[in-house]
Design brief:
Blueprint lengths: L18 E2 L5 E2 L2 H6 L8 E4 L4 E4 L7 H4 L1 H11 L50 H62 L4 H11 L3 H87 L5 H114 L3 H23 L16
Antiparallel strand pairs: 1-2, 3-4
Helix pairs in contact: 5-6, 6-7, 7-8
Length: 456
């Protein structure tokens, strides 16, 4: 008995899970099921031409021989042909397995399975959903990690950018301060030095009330000059503004007149063109009518009608010629007026331009004079206070020195020792010299120079 499995059995029903034992009983115990399938004999069946031989071992029959299904399976497994369940044409694309090995979970991945219609298909199937999710999960974790690293780098970069920004702001503020200082230095260097600047520099170095007073007097003189200059410049600026305003008003009026004259000239040109065209057309028509009139019979109505047309046409031509002459005369006059207006407008524009230049120059001088006057007033106020303090200081010093000199004179008169008198006289002379120096450079009243020494 042999079992044919090359063709699918449509009537075959899938058995329930488990291993079938002898008698059709299904057992889920693999050890129990296999104990009944122990092979104790091998049967080989061969067919030759016309003869059949069967060889059977002398061992007693076992349950394998009693079970037809077990015998069939045993024959297929031990057959020399090693029949394969996938030998038919339907599954010819699969690789034949000659042996068994340990089954691994990776064997059941979809990408390890070949298509039935061709080995090593050019369109392999993808992973299973579970495997695909597993690989995608790894990729997503890697991407999330990269995103976190990028976010951290961006945060660090923002922090660095903020730090750099504040650093740049700080440097910018410092730089602006330095620029302002340098600008003021350059401005002061570029600014021309005035008489006030010279006087103020002298006042800074003045050590006596006389020198300070002299500098203040110079400042007062400069103040008067500046005030006079400011009055003159103010008057000049006002006059320039009036001239400018008057010329600009006149310029606007003449430009408006020029625009009207140019429009009139355009009208005259149009009229002249129309009249010239009309006269030319009428003269051509007159020639045609005169030719027809000469050919018309005398005394006929046609000749009379033509004569009337000729007379009317001549009158119209004459009238148009008169109008043409008037238009040409008006055009000529208007052109002369336009020429005159353009000259006047150009003169006004030149005058306004010169006035603007003079006005700008006077305004600049006026602003400079006012600024210098403010500096003079500030300097006068500042050094007047300094003069008052200096005079008070010199007055106190002179009074103290005067008292010392009087005491020296008194001591000199009371002293009888010639050496001591000589020392007192030496001190007196020294103090008197200092006293006279201050008196000669001071504005303090009530003090005069000492011309005599002790004992004279």
């Amino acid at each position: 008995m042999s079992l044919q499995v090359s063709q699918p059995n449509k009537a075959f029903k899938k058995p329930k899970p488990g291993l079938r034992q002898v008698g059709g009983v299904v057992s889920n115990n693999l050890k129990t099921a296999l104990s009944n399938l122990k092979i104790s004999t091998n049967t080989q069946t061969g067919s030759t031409s016309g003869t059949t031989s069967t060889t059977t071992s002398t061992a007693p029959k076992t349950s394998l021989q009693k079970n037809p299904l077990a015998q069939a399976v045993s024959k297929n497994l031990t057959s020399s042909t090693k029949s394969n369940f996938f030998q038919d044409q339907t599954y010819s694309g699969y690789t034949r397995v000659d042996g068994m090995r340990t089954v691994k979970p990776s064997d059941y991945r979809r990408d390890n399975v070949e298509f039935a219609f061709g080995k090593y298909s050019s369109n392999p199937t993808g992973l299973t959903p579970r495997g695909e999710n597993r690989q995608n999960s790894i990729i997503r974790q890697y991407i999330d990690y990269q995103r976190e690293m990028i976010a951290k780098i961006e945060d660090q970069k923002k922090c660095m950018d903020i730090a750099n920004m504040f650093g740049n702001i700080s440097q910018g503020i410092t730089g602006l301060g330095n620029l302002a200082i340098e600008y003021n230095k350059q401005k002061a260097a570029q600014k021309p030095q005035t008489e006030t600047d010279v006087t103020v520099n002298q006042l800074r170095q003045a050590n006596t009330s006389s020198e300070i007073s002299q500098g203040i007097n110079e400042l007062n003189t400069q103040k008067q000059t500046l005030e006079s200059s400011i009055n003159t410049l103010t008057q000049s600026v006002n006059e320039s503004n009036e001239i400018k305003s008057k010329n600009e008003s006149e310029l606007t009026e003449k430009e408006s007149t020029l625009s009207n004259k140019e429009q009139q000239l355009t009208g005259y040109n149009s009229t002249i063109t129309k009249l010239q065209s009309s006269i030319s057309t009428d003269e051509a028509e007159l020639k045609r009518l005169e030719s027809s009139l000469s050919k018309a019979p005398d005394g006929s109505l046609t000749k009379t009608g033509l004569q009337n047309q000729v007379d009317n046409l001549k009158k119209r031509i004459e009238s148009n010629k008169q109008e043409l002459k008037a238009a040409e005369d008006n055009k000529k006059q208007t052109e002369e007026e336009i020429k005159t207006l353009k000259g006047e407008i150009e003169t006004l524009r030149t005058t306004i331009s010169n006035t603007n230049e003079r006005l700008a120059e006077d305004t600049k001088k006026l602003d400079s004079s006012k600024e210098q006057l403010n500096e003079v007033n500030e300097a006068i106020s500042k050094y007047t206070k300094k003069l008052d303090k200096k005079e008070d200081s010199e007055a106190d010093k002179l009074n103290d020195m005067k008292k010392d000199l009087a005491q020296y004179a008194k001591d000199y008169a009371a002293e009888t020792d010639s050496d001591k008198k000589a020392k007192i006289k030496e001190k007196f002379d020294k103090k008197a010299g200092e006293y006279n120096t201050i008196v000669s450079h001071s504005n303090v009243t009530g003090h005069t120079a000492i011309t005599k020494s002790l004992g004279e």
